[in-house]
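User: We ran a pulldown and think these components assemble together. Before we commit to crystallization trials, I'd like a predicted model of the whole complex to look at. Sequences follow.
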Amino acid sequence: MFKHTRALQFNAKPDRPDPLMARKLQEALGGQWGEMTGMMSYLSQGWASTGDEKYKDILLDTGTEEIAHVEMISTMIAYLLEDTPIYEQEEMIKKDPSLAKVMGGTDPEHGLVHGLTAGLTNPNGAAWNTGYVTSSGNLLADMRFNVTRESQARVQVSRLYHMTRDEGVRDMLKFLLARETQHQLQFIKAQEELEAKYGIVVPGNMDDIQHSEYSHVIMNFSDGEGSRAFENQIAKDGQKFTYQENPEAMGGVPKTKPASSELHNDQG
Amino acid sequence: MFKHTRALQFNAKPDRPDPLMARKLQEALGGQWGEMTGMMSYLSQGWASTGDEKYKDILLDTGTEEIAHVEMISTMIAYLLEDTPIYEQEEMIKKDPSLAKVMGGTDPEHGLVHGLTAGLTNPNGAAWNTGYVTSSGNLLADMRFNVTRESQARVQVSRLYHMTRDEGVRDMLKFLLARETQHQLQFIKAQEELEAKYGIVVPGNMDDIQHSEYSHVIMNFSDGEGSRAFENQIAKDGQKFTYQENPEAMGGVPKTKPASSELHNDQG
Amino acid sequence: MFKHTRALQFNAKPDRPDPLMARKLQEALGGQWGEMTGMMSYLSQGWASTGDEKYKDILLDTGTEEIAHVEMISTMIAYLLEDTPIYEQEEMIKKDPSLAKVMGGTDPEHGLVHGLTAGLTNPNGAAWNTGYVTSSGNLLADMRFNVTRESQARVQVSRLYHMTRDEGVRDMLKFLLARETQHQLQFIKAQEELEAKYGIVVPGNMDDIQHSEYSHVIMNFSDGEGSRAFENQIAKDGQKFTYQENPEAMGGVPKTKPASSELHNDQG
Amino acid sequence: MFKHTRALQFNAKPDRPDPLMARKLQEALGGQWGEMTGMMSYLSQGWASTGDEKYKDILLDTGTEEIAHVEMISTMIAYLLEDTPIYEQEEMIKKDPSLAKVMGGTDPEHGLVHGLTAGLTNPNGAAWNTGYVTSSGNLLADMRFNVTRESQARVQVSRLYHMTRDEGVRDMLKFLLARETQHQLQFIKAQEELEAKYGIVVPGNMDDIQHSEYSHVIMNFSDGEGSRAFENQIAKDGQKFTYQENPEAMGGVPKTKPASSELHNDQG
Amino acid sequence: MFKHTRALQFNAKPDRPDPLMARKLQEALGGQWGEMTGMMSYLSQGWASTGDEKYKDILLDTGTEEIAHVEMISTMIAYLLEDTPIYEQEEMIKKDPSLAKVMGGTDPEHGLVHGLTAGLTNPNGAAWNTGYVTSSGNLLADMRFNVTRESQARVQVSRLYHMTRDEGVRDMLKFLLARETQHQLQFIKAQEELEAKYGIVVPGNMDDIQHSEYSHVIMNFSDGEGSRAFENQIAKDGQKFTYQENPEAMGGVPKTKPASSELHNDQG
Amino acid sequence: MFKHTRALQFNAKPDRPDPLMARKLQEALGGQWGEMTGMMSYLSQGWASTGDEKYKDILLDTGTEEIAHVEMISTMIAYLLEDTPIYEQEEMIKKDPSLAKVMGGTDPEHGLVHGLTAGLTNPNGAAWNTGYVTSSGNLLADMRFNVTRESQARVQVSRLYHMTRDEGVRDMLKFLLARETQHQLQFIKAQEELEAKYGIVVPGNMDDIQHSEYSHVIMNFSDGEGSRAFENQIAKDGQKFTYQENPEAMGGVPKTKPASSELHNDQG
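Assistant: Here's a predicted model for the assembly, 1608 residues in total across the polymer chains.
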């Protein structure tokens, strides 16, 4: 169960409105790797967790924090959209041609659909969806996802930082950068502990089942020579990579049967 | 540019048809973490790469191999769907009630839409889409995604292995397990090299910019006590995690302005 | 069965082309609350109806009218896109910088995909989909949806009105505003009749089944004090709202079992 | 900002596992009108709110409660999936043919993708997406949406109630029914207050602009006679509905111009 | 503008309920190639048409007919769902194991979401969306789409015919088969006339612009020898196909520049 | 199985960067009719094929070529995005107002999400999805799809050609135009052979089953008179079209039963 406090986790107020920056910030809110994805992945993983309390708890802590990040970015976007004109464009552009940028580059749905507040989409207006979320039941696989989520998100927040000079926006982004540092590091820590317990290759205990003659072979399907650099290097599981210059097709030519006439697969 | 050989990379022929297993294998083909996701992520990352040849090449090698995996699984699904009846169900079930499973559990679109061949969807018929794909330009962030992709996929292939006793299907799955071992290990190797070069936290060189006072604090937003276990542990960047029992709301209560009357935001 | 007449229900001709306004009008055509949503919701509800003829008929009347609105807006968009240049941009902008707005703000798919005619998307190019449609079988729940549809649509049409000065566009919007007034009012009328028959809370006759001790309690999960204003007010079903300052977690801490080893839920 | 407590808002434990019921409960979690839709709509509206505190607060209260409902249903689904076999099906069905139902009717992704825990989809595996969410800036339009959300959700929860005999599941559903009663009633109350302030037809103050000669006319586009029943009745705004037996096409036949040759609109 | 008549275009009443067939018929309603796709494609093309009246009219005629087909199939599905039990399953299956099929194979959303009436999805519950629709402005390209739509739809209707023995369902399918014959033939006729006017290759008059040395070469990228059969055959534009055994890569190895440091494309 | 060569099939290098053209080219990559759609449709059809080798082979040849086109266009987009500024916009626009176009019209996700390389979306950022792909098992129906795919794509490539003056971009487009000529012609050839074998109307051998009295009737559902032009013309199957001025509703008024009370279909 959750309780909400009206005060934000951190400042989310820009120095001045900027509807183009509002549009770009939608990535951090409703993009593939935005806060919605963190929030719903960590909460789902935490609720699904049946193991060590420390992992369950860090997932629920972080998932709960991400709701606050969704709140902060939604708030920032609403501030950035304040006073955006929805008409008078021709006249204004004639006075200040740089405004044409604003007219052309804003998200028309910010005004039309949301009354100049945040949507739950990316900057191109694509609806956020749970196809971005991962909760697999395998905690190591999910920790790797979480490290990825925080890494991709921090790359995007860094790019957003360079896209504005607004000190208020930057202040919030600096906070998010720090939290994404923490979240990367905590999930890496958990990942390493789980690797120590279950092995490097996920999931553990399928090694005797797999066709292990193919489990350390770099297969060269592209004419670049670069991948040969991995040859004879030691993989993290302690075994050596081998290199196959010209991998062969081992499976033969398949020959499936024609379907029954009721399917009308007239195949020539 | 690509060339195709008709022979498959590995055997993809079941011992006997099984339309329910065909449906389940769609996850490995067109699910969030299926081969399509690997194929298009690695190829896109490879094409986008401007750096060290060895990374560009291993991405293109692996992306090209994944097209062959899409081919193998598509072929296997078509074999598993051979002879699936599309009618005569009542009569058949009366003779063998276990057939009711088949009637109820198969994907009706396998017959109706694809003439008993593979679709490019997951087992619930959701279209595969490029919202599953990642190519960010930041190679370390992408390598972390790739390790995740191979980990999630190998968990699913392991589950698929336990869902069948068909030795033909299992033979193919054992091969995929091995290749996903190799792909995990090669991407982990690349990831470690890139971490050595750019630092653990992605992206590098934003550390001076972020609000570093929040970059190593475990914030306790959930009443579980488990996350305290990380307190004072050493993060992978060499710094120590601190623990905040009761994180405060630092941002104040936001107060955005009402929008202009043209937006009809009648707010009460 | 349907018959079509070539003449439009109302004028749909602008005074002059305006590709940015064309883009914005896509919201009224293919957005979440656009005419497609009205058309397919009301027709589906009408076809599903098994009850009083007057509701079935008003749904089919209105659904049929909405096809004409889809037609009018599609026509208007095609007019607004007439003569939109697809090249010569640099030169033109140098002469008239305000044109940069047009170049940047138009939907590139209007030209590329539709040859400068309407698409069936929102202004951000997101495909309209039947996830926006509702037909539940419960007529009161659906009438509430219909009132909402007409309300959201009329808010958007009002905003569109303020976004243009073109008298031709405004003429059509004034007609849509009036029809959305009528549709709100007719669905509110139907809603009130159904409330009188089945009760305010949908669906009726579950009141004896629900845990009624929680059915009129305002629970205060946020630190704002505003919701206390509802305390002791009379709800529309005649009962009084109570207020719970600090709602407790009544459900205990859940503890699900670990899954079997075949699922590889390695949970730490 | 949010805090989480591990204890659930209410009991969410079934008497026994039932993977088919787990699948059906996904509707209440990740369907069009499920708890995710309530949670993100109310929170977004609350964050967007600039008006009367009582509305902002009730939205944030209720949005925060819905996170707890997402948590409860996710937990219930995980319980219901306990011990679901992922193989041994043939043998088991031969002993107990009624098991064929389970084999055929479960969601294969529950096991394959989520390790027998909840997903964030509907029962057909469609990803939940923010195309289901509404936050328009116009509070009355949004309150109407909220009443609809709670009505549709309560219809579905009522149907779910009849689909099971498990007393544990029913206990949770009885609680949800009560809360959805409260939420319907509170949003109806807010809606009525806003109607009293802004008028019945949303948005207010466009009445002088619209073509009012069409704002109270029931137009008969379908051959049913039922809609005539509304004729001369008094609409909620106090005016009388009129009835048009045979609405005419007032708009003339449109004639758009052919596009320039660069568009290759070869039209015959 | 449209008018609706309550009587259906053709019989749409089954001999008896069959919820599994109801599910399968959803393909013809809301699948990729279902009636919704025909309806919205032909209407959109008709509204976009600026050329010869006969093409505009046949598009509008057929688009209008397809609304009636959506109506017929929706009605048929509602009939097929009559009396579907939503509980009592265990007991019933014990008496008649063949019922397990029904329990497992029905769409749970038919009852839960639509109250046992039709949805606007395919049999796997995927929402129909306008990504299936085509209206390009180029009439020949669109006529080819239309011929394809009618061909794919008629294949599916033929398969549906073999999936049932219900004479009522079959009666409706026989009518749809006939109409899809007519629609194929009328669009083929239009296509041939447009080919006679504009040339076989769409769009016309780009032949002088294209690199014509590659416009009739069968390039052999796969090791099969089958495509050589086209060598020296006469293409429909009167020219001869040539065959390239081993197509070369003519484009050189690309070398894009690293992005600026603000993008954090750390590439190794 | 596939092998990759680093050299491109054809030149894919522009004369100079142009981020707006980069955005537009996304249509040819990740739009409904882009190269991804060709690639996955032809490969899927080829893998599904059980008939004449020449069709299987031409499908696999062409599908394999399309991967190279995906590669070429991805590369071109990356070149076009080189040096795109992600900030300094205000200052730059003041110097050169025509830059406002660029600022407003570029895809913000090109920089934010992909580090200025290609995404797998259309120009509006909609994710490519396999709802665009067709592989039905019926080869003639699929060849008609393939002809359509190449026709729609060539219309779009022609429009793209007119949207740029960059000779490098045009060089690549001229090559794609030629290949799409070849692909149209080869699929038309296959289509004609299959028509000769199976008949014009797809699928063959349902003619005795359909209600043939409706199989050649042009039904006039729209008040245009244009479609009468087809009357008495000879359809491609050798029969004559008839014309029905005023098609009647033959199906009667449907009357479905109310659902059981457990569904709460309160219908008034």
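Helices of chain F lie at 19-30, 35-48, 53-80, 89-95, 99-105, 108-112, 139-162, 167-198. That may be worth checking against your pulldown data before setting up trials.

User: Thanks, that helps.
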